Amino acid sequence: MATLRDLSKHLGISVTQVSRALNGYDDVSEATRQRVMDAARELGYSANISARMLKSGRSGIVAMVVDVAAERDVPDVLMAGVFGLSTGFARRDMQLILHAMPEGTDPVETHAKLARSGLIDGFVIVNPQFPQDPRITFLEGENVPFVVHGRDRITPDYPYVDIDNQRVGYELTRYLLGLGHRRIAMLDGAEGAAFSTARLAGHIAALAEAGLEPDMSLVRQAPMTEVIGRNSMDAVLQLADRPTAVIAGNTMLAAGIYSAISEHGLEVGHDISVVAHDDRLPRLPAEDFTPALTVTESAISASVEPLVELLIARIAAKRTRPESRLLPVTFVERASAQRR
């Protein structure tokens, strides 16, 4: 099995440079890091965890804990994140462990057990709850390195990667208002989720600017699946004063919404306008809907590299102030929403 010295000799660079490249230090150029990673794969180098821990105090293992019950219905979103993160950490000679938490398990206790095992260098937190996610509060208190996909407060003092979800809700609502719609339904993620809470706040703010009170009978917050999108839209369409437009939290919900509208003998765009936020999930491209779906878009895949980089920096304690990334969101107008 190849050693650090073998890699050093093969590449013609020092053992220290090889080690720092493998461990993700930011004083190593990306070109050098890639050369080291390629050589490690070519020569079959694999770090020994025990040796690594004796030398650096770190295992090279990070964890992401997921709630089996919460993630069961949304495998597309979970797998997009897991595959990307696993690949991103592997490029840096680290391992991502996916820990499936059985239904009814205390998430704080689960993180505590893993953190206190001494084998986990840090955590990736997903689906934060608003406000004050208890997992985040625990890890902050224990000074355990972590990064969050999203955030559980408006201005966190920890590393996170997010989009401006309040702006997403605001812009989609304002767009529909500009087309003359006044009865706008909003079907988004589960109640208490940070992103859906922020989007609803943006939706309400845009309505207020137009002098409209929010009608909460038009708001549905639940897991974002195609079946739930269909069932929620079916219920909304049975209201005495049905909406003329609807905002979907993702393309899976939008697919169910399209089905419900069709089952009611109505036409998307003509009778009911539909817009959505698009995570760019491979299975449901917004442009392939009929009619093509108007969206705000920000690919989940774009969050992978920042999450990896921020967690590695946090583990290495190279930055005294936590750095975060707010990713851009693009608006794409298509045929699914029309003027009233």
Describe the structure.
The protein has 340 residues and is an alpha/beta fold. It is 43% helix and 16% strand. The chain is built from 13 helices and twelve strands. The chain has helices spanning 4-11, 15-22, 30-43, 49-56, 68-71, 75-90, 107-116, 134-142, 165-178, 194-209, 226-237, 251-263, 304-316; strands at 61-67, 95-101, 122-126, 146-149, 160-162, 184-188, 219-221, 245-248, 273-278, 294-297, 325-326, 330-332. The strands form two sheets. The chain has a six-stranded parallel beta sheet, sandwiched between helices. A six-stranded mixed beta sheet has the order 7-6-8-9-10-12, with helices on both faces. The longest helix has 16 residues, at 75-90. The model has no long low-confidence stretch (mean pLDDT 90).
Name its key features.
alpha/beta, 6-stranded mixed β-sheet, 13 helices, 12 strands, elongated
Shape category = elongated
Q: How much of the polypeptide forms β-strand, as a percent range?
A: 15-25%
Summarize the amount of helix as a percent range: 40-55%
Find the structural class using helix and strand composition.
Answer: alpha/beta
Mean pLDDT: 90
Question: Uncertain regions: pLDDT < 50 for 5+ in a row?
Answer: none
User: Tell me about the biggest sheet?
Assistant: 6 strands, parallel
Q: Rg to the nearest angstrom?
A: 23 Å
Strand order of the largest sheet: 2-1-3-4-5-11
